[in-house]
Amino acid sequence: MKNSFWSAFSWKRALPLIIFVIGVGSYVLAFTTYYNDEFYKELLMTVGNVLVVGVLFGFLSNVTQLLGIFKEELQKIIYGKEFLSQRNDLLPLWETVSKELFKNKFPKISERLLKTVARYLPKDEVSFYDDYYVNYTIDWIDEENGIISVREATSFELLADSPNKFTYTLKTWARVSENSVYDNKIESFTVNSLKPTIKSEKNYVKDGCKYHEQDIVLHGETKYEISYVRIKKYSIYEDYYLGFCAKYIVNNLRVRLDLPSGVEAIFISRGTQEEFQDMSSTKNRIEKKYKKIILPQQGFVFALRKTN
After folding, report:
1. With contact defined as beta carbons under 8 Å apart, do 62 and 54 qualify?
2. Fewest beta carbons less than 10 Å away: which of 81, 115, 211, 221?
3. How many helices and strands in the chain, by DSSP H and E?
4. 34: helix, strand or coil
5. What range defines the domain where residue 23 resides?
6. Is 182 exposed, middle or buried (0-12, 13-18, 19+ CB in 10 A)?
7. Reported pTM
């Protein structure tokens, strides 16, 4: 029995219990009639107080420590990715956290403000574009009648949320009349250095613009290096601007425009937080960069004008 007792409870575990029993025993002896001397009663009461209170304080300290550990582990679970992915109240939770983060600086418009910001957050398969580069080269086909050729060479990295299958759409348009000169073709198109399979392709007219769309299916990766070269021919009198309007968030963008004689261009940033930085600027070349985040619906515009 003795061996089993000490094998089950080490001195470290048993010591608080022993001290507590001694403390209680001191109380019992102090209140018995065995000791009539007030000095011994006071001594036993003091010993009992020290021992019992010490054990209780140690116990409460351990409980507080355990509660702290429990709270920390519980927070890891509650705010963990797996748990959050199962919640259906992420938007209200995000709004509550954001309001506290902003210290309620926008009490009247906070709800509308946060819903506007939430629109820019990735919700589908594409997370963002990285290192987006566009190079436009304009040449004359018929200078007298204002017919130009625009060669657009674009490359970027598309970061996907997962390797699951999804459809990516490549779309362009030009504002030209029905019977005017217009041609659009893709000279090259690669994804991770391979030619993709075109799922579907369509041309249509909407609101005075001619559209061209190509759908490709991407899967198996979370990063896709996409590049293509597109050549369009049309009248500079009808469609006199080139532009980029982000569909997804863009991290770092660089653009270059090479112009022929007889055409000038003005660069306009499209809703970005800051202005684009100049890389090089000559009579026939404009090159800009934006080394920050571009949100959906933001981008840039080149306004073109025939000078002679």
Report:
1. no
2. 81
3. 6, 13
4. coil
5. 2-78
6. middle
7. 0.69
